[in-house]
Amino acid sequence: MALQRPDAVAPHGLADNPDGPGLARRLRSGALPVKDYIESCLARIDAYEPAIKALLPEPGRRERLLAEAAALEARWPEPAKRPALYGLLFGVKDIFAADGFETRAGSRLPCELFRMPEGPLVHALKTAGALLVGKTVTTEFAYFAPGPTGNPWNPDHTPGGSSSGSAAAVAAGFCALATGTQTIGSISRPAAFCGVAGYKPSYERTSRDGVVPFSPSVDHVGLFAADPASLALGAAAVVPDWHQSAFESALRTYAANLPVLAVPEGSYLDQTEPLALAAFRAQIDLLRRAGVSVLSVPAFGDIDEVNDRHRRICAADLERVHRNWFAIHEGLYSSQTAELIHKGATIADDELERDKAGRFEMRSRLERQLDEAGADLWISPAAPGPAPAGLSATGSPIMNLPWTFAGLPTLVLPAGLSSSFSKVSLASEGSEAVQGLPLGLQLAARFGKDEELLAMGCV
Question: What local confidence, expressed as pLDDT, does residue 387 receive?
Answer without folding.
Answer: 97
